[in-house]
Amino acid sequence: MDMFTDPAFWIAVGQIIMIDILLGGDNAVVIALACRKLPPAQRTKGIIWGTAGAIVLRVILIFFALTLLAIPFLKLVGAALLVWIGVKLLAPDEEGHGDINASDKLWAAVKTIIVADLVMSVDNVIAIAGAAQSAGEHQMALVIFGLVVSIPIIVWGSQLVIKLMDRFPMIITAGGMLLGWIAGTMAVTDPAIVGHMPLASELVEGKLPEVVASVKYSAGVAGALLVLAIGVLVKRKRASAAA
C-alpha cells in the first residue's frame, strides 16, 4: 500500500487518466454505435459488459507491452510512435465510424465493442505503458487503477469531455505535449542507451540503473516541444493546401 503515498504514482495515474480521456473519445463513440439498436433494457448491459471486456483485454495488452519495453531499442520505437500519436492528436485526420455495425443482440454488440476496442487501442496501450514506466514495481497496479478510474469517465462523460476540448483547445495541445513528454523520458531509459546516460545509481539486483532526473526531464521537455512543433507545422501545411 506504500505506492499510494508515492507522489510519482499519483502523477502517473493522472497521466494515464488524461491519456485515456484524450485518446478514448473514439472508443466511447464505438460503444454508442454498437449498442444503439439494442432494446433500452439491454443497452446498459451492453455498455457495461462491452466496456468490461475491453478493459480486461487492454490490461492484458499493456502487460505484454510493459514486458516488451524491457527489450533493447523497443522503447526507442515506442517513443517514436508516441511522437506520431501526439502529432495526430494535435492535427487529426478526418476519420469516420461507418464500419461499426450495430446489433439488436446483446452479445453481438458486446463482441463488436471488444473487437473494435482491440483494433483502436494500440495508441492507448503504447502511451499508458510509457506513462507506467515511472511506477517501478507497481506498474500493473498503476495501469489497472488508472483504467478503472478513467473508463467510466470515457463511457459516461465523453460528451462533456468533448465539449470541454472543443471549448478549450489547450486541453488537446497539453495532451499532445504530454505524449511527447512520455516519449522523451521513455527514449532515454531504453536498455540500449541507458548505459551512455549520466546515472543516478549503479546496477542493483539485476535492474537497470536510474538515469539522472535532470537528463530524463530535459528529454521529456524536448519530446513535448517536438510534438508541438511538428503538430503546428502539419496544421499549417494542411491549411495552406486547403487554401
UniProtKB/TrEMBL annotation:
Domain of life: Bacteria
A GO term from the CC aspect: membrane
One Pfam family in the UniProt entry: TerC
Main location: membrane
TM region(s), chain numbering: 12-35, 47-67, 138-156, 168-194, 214-234
Protein keywords: Membrane, Transmembrane, Transmembrane helix
Membrane topology classification: Multi-pass membrane protein
Subcellular location: Membrane
The keyword Metal-binding belongs to this UniProt entry's keyword annotation: no
Protein family: Belongs to the TerC family.
PANTHER family hit by this protein: MEMBRANE BOUND PREDICTED REDOX MODULATOR (PTHR30238), SLL1022 PROTEIN (PTHR30238:SF4)
Protein known as: TerC family protein
Phylogenetic classification of the source organism: Bacteria, Pseudomonadati, Pseudomonadota, Betaproteobacteria, Burkholderiales
